[in-house]
Amino acid sequence: MPKGVQPTAEQVNEVKTRFLQNLEAEPPAVPFHPSDLARIKDSDVWITQLLEAYKLDVEKAIVRLRENCEWRQSYGTNDINATNVNQEYLNDGEIYVHNQDKDGMPLLIVNFSKHSKSKNQDDLIRVMVYWVERVQKESNYEKKITLFMDMTGSGLSNLDLDFIKRIIGLFETKYPNAPNFIVVHELPFLLNAAFKIVKSFMPAEALEILRVTTKKDIAEYVNKDNCLKAWGGNDDYSYKFQA
């Protein structure tokens, strides 16, 4: 995946300086998490990624950075760990990270054959945030993630447009520059009409990196050794949570 237009050092510095000035002039009701403030003060990665995601729009990057810090503080993002998310969902293999795409970016897999509308969406999204944060921390926030929507063996009973909207919204607003690709794999013919609805609420930036794959062409994005056997690859991995 080619990178977007790279921001200049001046643009990164402007976002950082103005964000910190705004913070001093209008402090939040509840202070932002020290880890997030350290990421902003001590590194350019987060701001660079936001500027890339928003095509060098400095104003938008400043607003989003503040919104992200507010969300992370209220959501308790920095304190999410394997012990304080829904244990059933963490262990059932609907959402997990395994292997990588052709660019070396981790695959965040959502196995829709295991999804049911009866599951608690808030808890599922929290498990997803756990995995995103875990992957980002392991790569020092420098690696992107390929969101792999695995539709293999799924049917109408697994289809949950509200849940898919929540996933897309999470990446659009909270992790805008995290996705390398969004891969929808083995979409059943029955779900084609529903998928057109999904595409209608995806932002332009997400549509640019959206890929719909089958067993025939998955190797363009994930090589055979990193593909599960169910996807037409060589990996016979079966999910079991490991901290």
From TrEMBL:
It comes from the Eukaryota. GO terms for cellular component: endomembrane system; endoplasmic reticulum-endosome membrane contact site. Gene3D superfamilies: CRAL-TRIO lipid binding domain. Residues 85-239 form the CRAL-TRIO domain. Transmembrane segments: none annotated. SUPFAM superfamilies: CRAL/TRIO domain, CRAL/TRIO N-terminal domain. PROSITE patterns: CRAL_TRIO. This is CRAL-TRIO domain-containing protein.
